[in-house]
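Risk register update: the risk that structure generation would not scale has been downgraded. Supporting records follow, first protein first.
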Amino acid sequence: MASGESATDMRMSAVRFWNRLSPWTRDAALAVLAAGLTIGAPALDFLILGVNDPPIGMAQRGWPWLLMVLAASAPLTLSRRFPLSSVIATGMITLVSVLIGQNLSPWPVMIGAYVATYRCERRRLPVLVVGAPVWMLTVAVIMSGALRPSDVVYAIGFALMPVSFGYALRVQRDYAFQLQRLHIAERQRAQAEERARIARDVHDVAGHHLSAIRLRAMGGRREADGEDALRTVAELSAEALSEIRGLIEVLRDDEPRLTELPALATRLSCPGLTVTVKVSDLPELPERLHGCGYRIAQEALTNVVRHSGASTAEVSVRVAGTDLVITVEDDGTGADTVREGCDRKGSGLRGMRERAEQLGGSVVAGPRSPRGWLVHATLPVKRGLG
């Protein structure tokens, strides 16, 4: 059992290593494999036989033969971009080598046929199915002359082996791709249904609370003392806002960007509070960093409005080294315990810290000298790329 698991782990490690290679490196590795098999197979026969009369293909070994091997293997480096053309070029060079007596082995053509079957367009597959046996029979006739029926069957079967193997892997790949598309479609359908349900909930919540607020406000106009009516309106509106905020959050598709912070500052500025934003020239950043940084700044400014009693607030966004740094500071006189209380309730500062920690960053907040409050967030740019 342990040996079986070990073999599986080794195969998975090999697959992961292969997938980490660049496409050009993989194609170059196939070309090197083809050349190695072509050169190594006759040498192995010669070493095993141990005689001075090496098998066919070794007698003509030398620089011309070696150059033919390299020429036949070189087109495989383009097999990803030109799968069918590369195997045709390899086949023609190998056929020429047979005509001039160099007698290359069919390894480059077999590897090229497998790769072409796996990568080429589906409408070109018949070219490989027909061309591979024709090429193999042509080579066999040139080398051996007349062929027996059994030789023909053997040649056709040998030629179709790499094509069949490449087609089997192609079918498996296409099946995995279709399965992935099916899963994506099912997930999108589920999301659409969830959005429709949330839209209905938003409609019901908003309709109910706004209707109740309207009725209560109309009733308050007829009452001598409208204080109770106003208190009820405030409670209903707060409840409706809380419920709708939780529902709307699920519907957000796009993360806000840091470049939208000036607009946020404009909305929050009022006669008693001036909010300024300084965004340095930022490099291209991932959406996750934009969204996280914006939310942190938004929550910090919300706390300024709610708790600080500040007259000015300033937001600074810059990249320092490998980190995105966001600072929000104000000149307020609000009690520190009030702001820390937001952290204990699971919102406010704790929410900002949780957002930053998801990207491997941190948030530090506290009083600043001589007065006011400072929120300092650090987000690593590399973690945001993951």
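Supporting record for the second protein:
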Amino acid sequence: MLFLKKIKVLRYPLLFLLLYGLTQFLTLFDSNHDGLVKDISLYHLSNYILWIAGIVLLIAECAKSKISFLKNISFSLFIFIFFWLFLEIISWSLWKTKIIDFKNPVNSFLFFDMNLNTMDKRPYWGDYSSISGKWRLPNDSLQKLRCNDSTLLIYQTNSIGARDKERSLKNHTNKKRFVCIGDSFVEGIMVNTPDRLSDILEKNTGHEHLNFGINGTSPINYYLIYKSLAKKYDHDVVVIGILPANDFEDYTEGDKISLLDYPIYRPYWKSTNDKIELKHSLATVNQSYSSLAIYDKPYEVYHTKDSIYRSLPLVQKIKSQFRANSYLLALIDEISKRKSATSVPQPSVFENYPKKKWKDFSYSLERLFEEAKGKQIIIMTIPILSDIKRYQKNHKSELSPQLALLCKKNGVNYIDLLPLLGNYQNPSELFIPCDGHWSEKGEKKVAEILQNNIFYRKSLLKN
């Protein structure tokens, strides 16, 4: 009889464990992804049922308990859930009636949505490199209209996927050869190829300027692109464009939950026991939603997201579920965004760079310096329009002297474009108003600045 009483007391926990075991069996049975029935995930459906049943049973059992502490827990939990649901209903009503317009949550775990897991066409810039992640396909092209004046932009890659004309591995001239590395500003993303910085410099100086710039990258990508690709080409000078506005925004393991929205393949540094290792955000580049393998296979993208979800710690799993289901949190996010938009402008990265990210940022640059040992290296910092306008008001920059010190330590020449562009009377005309990248006038102005700079002029001279 005592055994039966114990079984009766444990019936709900045992049922809970049984249901949990069944969901885990589904995971094992279906390998690294879900079974989908009419675009509903069996795994997540069973998990929702499991957790709802568990919470209801917990409240019910605690409410029947003779222990006042447990009864109080039951009552408090019930009140919390009641008010949370009440606030969810109000938030849903505000969204439904458009009183406050905000993006509604979409349960991308439970329901498979084709639109959330596919791209309209093969991306021109995609995760095509197993080393650096972001790159382009060989001999590819893209045409698009510029956002402000409908100028036709024509992008064309060469045989290695660089947005450049075909280059020989060997330097067949008697002049120095330059390699240019950076993100969208170095790539010249809002102008046609002849109008961008590297092509203007090549035309004006007669020295080849090989362009390996690509948008959406940062110093760790610059290092990997140089090491795996650019270094193969004969060159004497390396020009690195640093964009402080976003070059500190490298992926870290703490950002893993963001991969549930956009599963991308990004390199990052992981420090363990005084050892720094190169890691990537996904197991393989083919798991990226912008990879050649699955960009047009929405079910595979969904499986990648689901695999990421299952690898998250419990706390992040709960957080991601709230993000995917809660109208209340979506409303709070919208209010927060609106408040930020009307608040006092934040200091630029030049004024207040993220100190916690300096270690990885500087380490990536030092690895690049080491890889380019024996070459002349020039680093230039690129300010965006808001950086320039703030500098014109206060003339402050704590990042510039820090970078100058790093460059001096490694024997690298440093050109800070912030004060040089800050002297320009109307900097707005140097940028595309609807996008923020350099206009043709901006590309030409920066080329002029470099050609008048002592470090760049010395790099043109023969040793």
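Residues 1-6, 30-34 have pLDDT under 50 and may be disordered. On this basis the risk owner (M.S.) recommends closing the item.
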